[in-house]
Automatic annotation (TrEMBL):
The lineage of its organism: Bacteria, Bacillati, Actinomycetota, Actinomycetes, Kitasatosporales. This is SDR family oxidoreductase. Keywords: Oxidoreductase. InterPro entries: NAD(P)-bd_dom_sf (IPR036291), Sc_DH/Rdtase_CS (IPR020904), SDR_fam (IPR002347). SUPFAM superfamilies: NAD(P)-binding Rossmann-fold domains. It comes from Streptomyces mesophilus.
Length: 246
């Protein structure tokens, strides 16, 4: 990876949770479009394995606000101001409220809500100063409707939807777009975080019964939304496998 100079002609894009799944697919998509990248993930070796040009890879936990902000400053010093952040880092810990451990609730809100806010806060002041930018928040269909065993996860993703809508009202006058991407079931590692083996097995059986989304499907939607003219905001994109009825 070349991190010495910015040879790309397009502005910097920041992606959290970039080590696998939707994040890695989005990194490939934006790199192919010519953007230099700041890729953040806890497993930095996963990012480095992507071997993308004009890319700075950093091991960062999004729950650490200072680490996120520091990485953004470093990326901007190499590649110029961040024009896009894709807040993709997230955890899904399925469980019934009566049985689930409280630390799993806390982990989901720490990553899915606080971590997302840390990403926004790291780039937003600069975007406001420049009068342009795009914030893309990766939520879920579970942020629009509920499912059994998803109570706290859905709560965290409903929060993403609510914060995105309110943030859009705050920053629209500054020329900044806020976009929510709400995928249905995707073939990623997200389910592996769940510790309730029965719920995990049920969800896996559902995924196996249909042709779920591939990470690249979601990355293509992100790329499409970002490539619209700056005056156009696709406020929310909901996508799911055709065979996913709910």
């Amino acid at each position: 990876m070349n991190t010495d100079t910015n040879t790309a002609s397009k502005p910097l894009a920041v992606i959290t949770g970039a080590g696998s799944g939707i994040g890695a697919a989005t990194a490939r998509t934006l790199s192919a479009l010519g953007h230099p990248l700041l890729l953040l993930a806890r497993r930095v070796e996963r990012i480095e394995a992507l071997a993308l040009p004009d890319t700075l890879a950093r091991s960062v936990d999004v729950t650490d606000a200072a680490a996120v902000a520091g990485a953004v400053r470093e990326g901007e010093s190499l590649y110029g101001p961040a024009d896009l952040i894709v807040n993709n880092a997230g955890v899904m810990l399925l469980g019934e409220v009566a049985k689930q451990q409280a630390d799993e609730w806390e982990r989901m809100f720490d990553v899915n809500v606080r971590g997302l806010l840390h990403g926004i806060r790291a780039v937003l002041p600069g975007m406001i100063e420049r009068g342009r930018g795009t914030v893309i928040n990766v939520s879920s269909v579970a942020g629009r409707k509920t499912y059994p065993g998803h109570t706290v996860y859905s709560g965290s993703k409903f929060a993403v939807h609510g914060m995105s809508e309110s943030l859009r009202e705050e920053v629209a006058g500054h020329g900044i777009r806020v976009i929510t991407i709400a995928p249905g079931a995707v073939e990623t590692e997200l389910l592996s975080h769940t510790t309730d083996e029965a719920l995990k097995a049920d969800y896996q059986a559902f995924k196996d019964s249909i042709e779920v989304l591939a990470p690249q499907d979601v990355a293509a939607a992100i790329g499409f939304a970002y490539q619209q003219p700056q005056r156009v905001t696709l406020r929310e994109l909901v996508l799911a496998a055709t065979a996913q009825a709910a």
